[in-house]
Amino acid sequence: MTDTIIRDDRRGGRAGRPRMVGGTPRPGLPIRGLKGIALLIACALVILPFLAVVSTSLADQQQVTEAGGYVLWPDRPNLDAYRAILSGGVVTRALLVSVGITLAGTALSLTCVTLLAYSLSRPGSYLQKPVLLTVLFTLFFTPGMIPMYLTVRQLGLIDSYWALILPTMVGAFQVIIMRAFFQEIPGELIDAARIDGANELQILTRIVLPLSKAVMAVIGLFNAVAYWNAFFNAVLYINDTEKWPLQLVLRTYVVDNAALGVDTADIAGTVMPPSQSLQMAILVISLVPIALVYPFLQRHFAKGMLIGAVKG
Amino acid sequence: MATEVETTPAPAGRGHRPRRPRSPGAGRRPRASRRTRFRRDRFLLLLGLPGLLVVLLFNYVPLFGNVIAFKDYQPYIGIWDSPWVGFSNFDVIFNGDPAFVNALTNTLVISFVQIVFVFPVPIALALLLNSMLSERLKRVAQSILYLPHFMSWVVVVAIFQHMLGNAGLLNNFLRSHDWATLPIFGNPDMFLTLITSQVIWKDAGWGTIIFLAALSRVDMELYEASAVDGASRMRQLWHVTLPSIRGVIVLLLILKLGDVLTVGFEQIILQRQQVGADASEVLDTYVYFNGVIGGNWGVSAAVGLIKGLVGVVLVLGANKVAHLLGERGVYSK
Description:
Helix content of chain A: 55-70%
Largest interface: A-B, 114 and 117 residues
Radius of gyration of chain B: 27 Å
Strand order of the largest sheet of chain A: 1-2
Oligomer: heterodimer
Low-confidence stretches of chain A: 1-18, 264-269, 308-312
Shape of chain A: globular
C-alpha cells in the first residue's frame, strides 16, 4: 500500500512532487536529513564492530602492533591466523564438533517435529487431543535447571553429544507452527491421493512434504542456528574439553582470554600471527555459517515469526 | 499398510471431518470404535511417537526431579534414598538468605531497567524505518539491523569486550591519544549499563519486525483524513500511528512483565566472573552456582521450583490481563 503510493509519487517527477506522501505531509529536508543520520548511526554501530573483527583477523603483526591491538582495515591482508587455528588443535576439533552437532541435531529435530506435527494435523485422529495438550502444556513451564541436569545425568548423557542434541530437539512452538501449516493443506488433495491408493507414508512424502518445503526450511534453519549458537547446555553437560563445541572454545579463548596453544610447527616459515588476529579469526569462523544462511534467514524468519505471532 | 487403508474407512481431510459413529442416545463411544480408530490411526501415532517421547523425557520426566527440593539430596546416595527434609530447603527464600535476596534484587532491577530502556527502542526504530521514504534504504537498513540477532551470546559478549574492554579498540584509541580510558568491563557500576546496551545491540533490530508488521496494517485513509484536517506529522504520529499499534505494544509489554524473573542467563553467566556476584548474580545464575557448582542441590532446586511456579503464575496472569484488555495473548480463551 505505502509502497505503491510512494512509487507513483516518485514517478510524478521533480516538478510535480506533491506535498503529500502516502497521506502524510512530506517532511522538510532537515527532518529527513536527521532521520537518515539516525539510521546511519544505528547501522554503523552494528557494522563497525564486525568490520574491526574481520579486519583484525586478516591483519599482520606489524599493523596490529602499530594500531595497538585492533585495526579497522587490513593494509596487508593475510590468512595466517586462519591457517594457524585450522591446522589441527583445539579450534579445529571444536569446529568439527559444532558442525556435527548442528547437522545431526537439525536433521533429527526437523524429522521429529515434522512427524509429530503431521500426526497431530489429521482431523479427528485417535488420541490427537491428549497428545496435543501434552505438547502445548510445555509452553507454560520449564522443568528448571537442576531437575534437567539430574535427568540428563540419570540418562547417562553427561559428556555425551546427545546431551547437546536431545533436550532442545522438539520445541512445542515449532510443532504448533508446523501443524497449523499442515492443516492449511486442502483435505481434497489428501483424499484424492488416498482414492488413488496412496498409503499414509506416501501421502506424507509425496503430497504433504513437497507442499511444506518453505516452513520446513524455516524451522530447520531456526534449529540449525540454535544448535550452532547453543552455549550453556555444553557448560552444564560437557566436562571433557575434548568434546567442547566452538562456542565454549570461543568463551575460553576470546571472552576469558586464555592463552591459545596453537601449534606453530605446521606453519613453518611464517611468523606467528598476533594473538588478537587469532582471537578474531576464531570469532569470524564461528560467524561464517550464520553469514552463509543469513540472506535466507532474514527473508523467511521475519515471515515465520509473524506466522508464529498470529497462529500461536 | 495399504490393505488397512483399503479395508478401513480412511480419515477424510479437512472439510470432510469424519463423525465418530455414535449410537443414538449413548453418550459413550462403544469399545469397538476406539479399537477401530486405533487400528485406523496407528501409523499416524507411530509417526508422532519419537517426538512425543522426547517431549515426555525432557519436559515432563524432569518435573519429578523437583522432589529433591524437599530432600537433602546427596549425589552418591541417589534421589530415591536421600532423606526427606520437608521445607527446610526453602528457608533461604522465606528467611531471606543474603545471597538469595541479592540474586532476586538484581533480577528484578535488571528486568525493570530493561523494560524501561530496552522495550521502547524497537518501537522507535520501527517508527524510524517506517517513515523512511526510500524503500531500498529501508531494506538495506533492516538487513543490517537484524544481523546481531543471529549471533550467539558468546559472540556478542566477545565483540563487546574486544571493542569496549580495557584492552579493546576504544580504550586503545583513547590511550594512544593519552586520554583517560573508560573502565566499562570488569566494573560493577557499569554492569547494568553494559548488559542493557548489549541487549539493545543484539535484539533491537529484530524486535522491530512485529511493530513494522503492525505499522504496515495501519489504514492509509486515516492519514489522509487527518492530513485533510490539517494534522502535522507529529500529530499524525500521536493520533494515528501510535493508537494503531497500541494493541501490539500493550501485548508485548504484558508478556514481558510475565517474564520478569528471567533475565539473560547466558549473557550474564559469561560476564559474572569479571564483576563479581554482588553486581551480577541473578536467580538463574544463583541456581547454577549454588547447585551444580556448589553442591547445594536441594536449596537450588527449591529456588528453581519457586521461580518456576511464580513464573507460570506470572505468565498466566499476564495472559489474563491481555484477555481483559481484549488482546489475544499467547493462547486464546
